[in-house]
Design brief:
The structure is a homotetramer of 131-residue chains. By secondary structure, the first copy, chain A, is an all-alpha fold. Chain A has one domain: Substrate Binding Domain Of Dnak, Chain:A, Domain 2, CATH 1.20.1270.360. Chain A is elongated, with a radius of gyration of 15 Å. The two termini of chain A are 28 Å apart. The first copy, chain A, has five helices and no strands. In chain A, 79% of the residues lie in helices and 0% in strands. Chain A has helices spanning 3-9, 19-45, 49-69, 77-99, 106-130. Chain A binds chain C through residues 2-4, 6-8, 10-13, 26-27, 30-35, 37-39, 41-42, 44-46, 63, 66-67, 70-74, 105-107, 110-111, 113-114, and chain C through 2-4, 6-8, 10-13, 26-27, 30-35, 37-39, 41-42, 44-46, 63, 66-67, 70-74, 105-107, 110-111, 113-114.
Chain lengths: 131, 131, 131, 131
Amino acid sequence: MTSVAELVRSSPTDLPVDEKLLIETIELLYDGAATCTACADACIAENEPHCAATCLNCADICFTTARILSRATGFDADTTRAVLTACEQTCRTCAEHCERHAEQYEHCRVCAESCRRRADACHRLIDALAA
Amino acid sequence: MTSVAELVRSSPTDLPVDEKLLIETIELLYDGAATCTACADACIAENEPHCAATCLNCADICFTTARILSRATGFDADTTRAVLTACEQTCRTCAEHCERHAEQYEHCRVCAESCRRRADACHRLIDALAA
Amino acid sequence: MTSVAELVRSSPTDLPVDEKLLIETIELLYDGAATCTACADACIAENEPHCAATCLNCADICFTTARILSRATGFDADTTRAVLTACEQTCRTCAEHCERHAEQYEHCRVCAESCRRRADACHRLIDALAA
Amino acid sequence: MTSVAELVRSSPTDLPVDEKLLIETIELLYDGAATCTACADACIAENEPHCAATCLNCADICFTTARILSRATGFDADTTRAVLTACEQTCRTCAEHCERHAEQYEHCRVCAESCRRRADACHRLIDALAA
């Protein structure tokens, strides 16, 4: 279990959503922020400007979404849904860009897979919040 | 003129949107990230937990939105609209929270006004991108 | 293996430091950014203002340090050392604050342990860069 | 007066440092985070990988330093000095890189000047904290 999973479990405030799904999404989003930051750096070195800038955007929205999901104290359903929707959209766009170079660059192959997983996780959490 | 305005003007890539509106929105969002970060700190000191956490969320999405708007190289209309929508929603939620303490705390009064201005700026830019 | 570990391994640029130590530190720092963000939220809810603000500071510097370590393309030894030194200092300060509430709050106990591990990891990497 | 200046002035907590110098530094650092983010995007488009990655590092540490300076509630002198030192170092490194392209790219000329101003502001604040 990661420290963040223990933290969410020991929070004095509960979010109105399945805890396991919430923790899994937060962990995927932080791993995504890390993955897209590193993929952006590799794409900058490979001179792939559009893919680099797309990865930078994805890293920033994944990090912000993970943080907002971690703040049970300030939970607001409308904000959470809107931010998850923006994150899902950005992850799908980034996945499409990285997939175009997946055979050429190992970092883009790994990043594209990670982006797809995160987009799906955001989608599941949006559904869970709507239920 | 701020440095960021000069930067956007000297970018080798043009965004398909009015430059003046874009620069104004980016500047408002960075000022908002700064304002909400400081208001969160003041609300933590005043023991206003819900307002503090809402300001932290707003600071993060304002900063991420400002960054994404500054990346002409990775511009994607769907991503930009979704992120601006999330930012507008978060700013409106934060404005509502801070307005409840506007008479009690000067920092919440200033922050609420700043949040309204940013929400409106995001809305105008969404309209401009749709046009 | 996390995605970020795969990413660092597939980067076209090598950092002049042991790859295993580098990946371990990056992973600890991202987990720390996540842990301190969640601990700050819990401390806000518990009305522990000083601990909340300290955790917010620690989350931000951990995230920035993780990002700078992930950018092999822009590697600069002086910058890396100065940032790691600031991160180590901030993690030690945060550990001290959270330890004071470790018996009272499970989130502060977990966060303090995580802060100590990160401070030590930063220290090891500073030594490795100096060698 | 920017919103962030009003916010710092209305904070319930005072920092043990000259308020005018503090506000000026915070404003310069946020403008720097904005400037370096935009310069990184321009450098990515111009295929200047090392300068792009250096600007990304500088944007991140400027933003984190501005945030830490805005959190009077969690003020810790050792942390503040260490973070300002890291920020000054990163701004000087970024200034050197951008200056090499100052005649070729207007964005690098503006960014280099902005980096020098911020490095000097960080230095003055470190001196003020030591006094």
